[in-house]
Amino acid sequence: MDATALPHEDLAALLKWYVDHGLDETIGEEAVDRFALPPPVAVTPPSAPPRNAAAPTPIRAAMPPPLARAPVPLESPQLVEDAREIARRCTTIAELEEAVRAFEGCALKRTAKNTVFADGVAGAPIMVVGEAPGADEDRLGKPFVGVSGQLLDRMFAALGMSRERDLYITNILFWRPPGNRTPTLAEQSICLAFTRRHIELARPKLLVLAGGTAAKAVLDTTEGIMRLRGKWTTLKLDDGTEVPTMPTFHPAFLLRTPASKRQSWLDLLAIDKKLKELG
Ligand code: URA
Description:
The protein has 279 residues and is an alpha/beta fold. The protein is built from 10 helices and 6 strands; from the N terminus they run αααββααβαβααββαα. The protein starts with 7 loop residues before the first helix and ends with a helix.
């Protein structure tokens, strides 16, 4: 049915119904029946070169080849293993970014507009890991650019730091969950495989985990942010690196609960002190 033929109040009710169900953005002019599309291929097996074919000249030697395996369902634990293996083979942040952008094993990618990889300075002394891109981040393809990102910038500006010079910012998820729903554990585990490698390659002096979801996922704990925040812990990575890590409140939580800003300020002071101690 042509929706424009509906009376105005019915259209308004339809719009409200969409928003209530998490559909808060239009991403195309034409509706796409995704149930009618063929299932996505999680990992592309490389095609075998013809026998005796001359070796092709590599365009870019650095990028590891994709894993050779038949497609697997999008909730399969195998995808976590694939993500770990792909991430492990990346030796630079640029390779990792390319691998994340090419990865088809996370269901969130199907509904997101953009892959949101990182912002700030790769190699900066402080790396901030948040939860997931929201609508603004999805639209612009950069983490923490909406209202909570602006608060994050103001918090670090109070210490004389900026994302242009002192911070490297990312999330545990590279794609926006539709309607900002809570990401499933499978989605988190898949993206986390890349994020852990991201931390190894960025080699920050300090890691800041913004919010309970990021803290629980990265530290692999069930403790809540109320207990975790403000306490230094050491993140041990697969390559043997150990990073001093501070879980703190998510800026979105601070916007809802301004009284908690006092505790956040104490966390920021501790981060500043630690950084000065580390030189
Ligand atoms: N919240 C997050 O955790 N990350 C973003 O990038 C934006 C909002």
